[in-house]
Amino acid sequence: MSVLQKTLKGAKVAHFKNTENCESTPMPLPKEVCISMSQHMGPPCNPLVKKGDAVKVGTMIGDSEAFLSAPIHSSVSGTVSAVEEIVTATGSRCQVVIIQTDGEQAVDEAIKPPEIENHPEFVKAIRASGLVGLGGAGFPTHIKMNPKNLSEVDTLVVNAAECEPYITSDYRTIIERPQDILDGIAAIKKYVGITQVKIAVENNKPQAIEMLRRLTGDDPSIEVCSLKAIYPKGAEKVTAYETTGRVIKEGMLPADVGVIVENVTTTAFIGQYLRTGMPLVTKTLTVDGGAVAEPKNVVAPIGAHFSDVIDFCGGYKCTPKKLIMGGPMMGTLVFDDTYPVLKNNNALLAFDESQTAVYEEQPCIRCGRCIQACPYHLMPRMIEKAYESDNIPMLHKLKVSLCMECGCCSFVCPAKRNLTFTNKMAKQKLRAATAKK
Ligand code: SF4
Ligand code: SF4
Predict the structure, then answer these.
(1) What is the CB neighbour count within 10 angstroms for residue 189?
(2) Using an 8 Å Cβ cutoff, are 424 and 385 in contact?
(3) CA–centroid distance, residue 415 to ligand 1 (Å)
(4) Where does [4Fe-4S] cluster 1 bind (predicted)?
(5) CB contact at 8 A, 344 and 39
(6) CB atoms < 10 A from the CB of 60, how many?
């Protein structure tokens, strides 16, 4: 039996796309930005600036020689006031560059559109732009654009499913920047050698589907795929399967089945970057939740403190009970609003009391709903038991490492068991045991 079945499951979560008609609006320049050196999957960057240095918009301030990395650029012009460590949302430590803005927003003289003739130059330019997956994963884009089996990759899947509740920033990209998306697609087709493109959109966004079909109707190599709006249609393996029928098995990458999956805003950035040469220095994020006075889509300089972003949204209308970076299903809780906007930050949710009910776990009633809901047909309750009894061979057998922590199993469990969290811990336990071995 394959990992992904013919009938992919998932959960019917409420969409709460309250901000879908809110145009992306740039926030005023804050007095200070705090730019993290850890904004991508892989080792963090090393700061290239020190206290007292002057920087401009687009100045490179961090880089790394590690394979899995992407450089980091200043989002403002001003003066570096500190290079120091902060505790991240996950409890680890990372370096940040703090810059006091001068209000000028002078652009670095080195910024100019890249000159690209071939695939290696395209990959080099994408790396220089600092681009990472903007849908949340933060995977460096230049690595995706340079798969080992390049000649076998024939399909680009543009992921515009945006299945997490509340988040509408990708939807706004489609409505506001369709030409950037088309330019990004054209560049990837040309330099990576792609022959077919699938744009995946959930069917709760009919205006986006209609617009994309109208704009791509003359191009037989591009298909706009309307996906049933069941969470998590935007998960990479799920989107790839739903649009191409190709199964990405355990341990495989999309390129292993000839596919590159790229988030729609990431694709739009490529189109914009090739035209302007401005690296990734701003991020559009959906700001919503019961504690936010005026929910909206905000274009923020990378490194803006969440408190400044919230102020632009009218501040808090009550004390938030929970601050989430990302969506409610897969986002990360943050402990306070001093934390900065990151490249892969697509939402900031401030939930009030009514949105943060905590339920007590009850004994499992063996209803099987968690298995039915899992897109990968894992067995979350069995994983929980194997985790609790330290049964490493069983965790391996149950393929816990496939779990993408989508939250569907916990969402549907009538006993309110915290299965997703247990899966996360079980993955760590299995990894540690494997490393020890
Ligand atoms: S969190 Fe993991 S086990 Fe639970 S439904 Fe998602 S993929 Fe399946
Ligand atoms: S959904 Fe909850 S109650 Fe039902 S089998 Fe899974 S863990 Fe048990």
Answers:
(1) 17
(2) no
(3) 16
(4) 364, 367, 370, 413
(5) yes
(6) 18
Does ligand 2 have an atom closer than 6 angstroms to the CB of 415? yes
Mode of pairing for the β-strands spanning 46-47 and 347-351: unpaired
Q: Which atom of ligand 2 is nearest to the CA of 373?
A: 1
247, 2 in Cβ contact below 8 A? yes
The pairing of beta strand 347-351 with beta strand 25-26? unpaired
Residue located via tokens 């006075």: 293
User: Nearest ligand, CA of residue 405?
Assistant: 1
Antiparallel, parallel or unpaired: β 259-263 and 155-160: parallel
Fill in the DSSP letter of residue 42: S
Q: What is the pLDDT along the chain (437 residues), one digit of tens a residue?
A: 344 444 457 889 999 999 999 999 999 999 999 999 999 999 999 999 999 999 999 999 999 999 999 999 999 999 999 999 998 877 889 999 999 999 999 999 999 999 999 999 999 999 999 999 998 889 999 999 999 999 999 999 999 999 999 999 999 999 999 999 999 999 999 999 999 999 999 999 999 999 999 999 999 999 999 999 999 999 999 999 999 999 998 889 999 999 999 999 999 999 999 999 999 999 999 999 999 999 999 999 999 999 999 999 999 999 999 999 999 999 999 989 999 999 999 999 999 999 988 889 999 999 999 999 999 999 999 999 999 999 999 999 999 999 999 999 999 999 999 999 999 999 999 999 988 87
Domains of the chain: 27-111+279-355 (3.10.20.600), 119-276 (3.40.50.11540), 369-436 (no CATH)
DSSP string, 230-252: -BTTTSHHHHHHHHH-----TT-
Ligand number nearest to the C-alpha of 366? 2
**CB contact at 8 A, 255 and 151:** no
Pocket lining: 359 vs ligand 2, CB cutoff 6 Å:
no
Residue pair 373/313 in contact by the 8 Å Cβ criterion: no
Do 389 and 355 contact (CB within 8 A), yes or no?
no
318 is in an annotated binding site: no
What distance in angstroms lies between residue 77's CA and the mean position of ligand 2's atoms? 53
Report the atom number in ligand 2 closest to the C-alpha of 384.
7
Q: What whole-number distance in Å separates Cα of residue 83 and Cα of residue 99?
A: 9
Ligand 2 pocket test target in 384, 413, 416 with most atoms within 8 Å of CB: 413
What is the 416 CA–ligand 2 centroid distance (Å)?
A: 8
Tokens representing 133 are: 């997956």
Task: Name the residue of 361, 379, 416, 417 to mutate for ligand 2: max ligand atoms within 8 A of Cβ.
Answer: 417
